[in-house]
Design goal:
mainly alpha, Four Helix Bundle (Hemerythrin (Met), subunit A), 7% strand
Length: 168
């Protein structure tokens, strides 16, 4: 059995899903205009009072994608300010994240499955091997925020299907 590279486990997954997210947001914006929805209502919608709004879900999903690639390469993730207030701004953020993900080569992630990755969270630090970080932290968090963004839009009447989530 051949070994699957860390790059193969990360970059294509982030790329495909971020492209799907861009397509989902484009559909949402088109449908919002057709239904005379105020786009800011969608962008600020949340599933529960204590959950982040759609805009923040997209920001966090992109942060996990770009952060995972950088950390696996042994780099500090590039900061992107969380200033998006429109669908166009979110599309630009996704495009920037796609470029960052594409900027990491397979060679840069070689051996990263054993690289120590440290994440600082309020009150503590989490330490992982690169493999455990990717499979047990970065990808699950990425998919959580992707799924929540999708669910917020569906909850608000945007016509999307599982196919939209899985295939752009």
């Amino acid at each position: 059995m051949s070994k699957i590279s860390m790059h193969a486990l990360s970059a294509p997954v982030f790329t495909r899903m971020l492209k799907n997210l861009a397509a989902i947001l484009a559909k949402a914006e088109t449908q919002a205009k057709a239904k005379n929805y105020d786009p800011s209502v969608l962008l600020n919608s949340r599933l529960a009072p204590d959950m982040f709004a759609l805009t923040r879900q997209v920001q966090i999903a992109t942060d996990h994608a770009k952060g995972a690639m950088a950390r696996l390469a042994g780099h500090v993730p590039e900061a992107i300010e969380d200033t998006e207030t429109t669908f166009a701004h979110l599309q630009a953020r996704i495009a920037k994240t796609l470029a960052l993900v594409a900027g990491y080569s397979e060679a840069q992630l070689e051996g990263s499955e054993k690289r120590e990755v440290t994440i600082k969270i309020p009150g503590s630090e989490l330490k992982f091997t690169g493999y455990d970080y990717l499979t047990g932290f970065a990808l699950p968090n990425f998919y959580f925020h992707m799924t929540t963004a999708y669910a917020i839009l569906r909850h608000n009447g945007i016509e999307l299907s599982k196919r939209d989530f899985l295939m752009s």
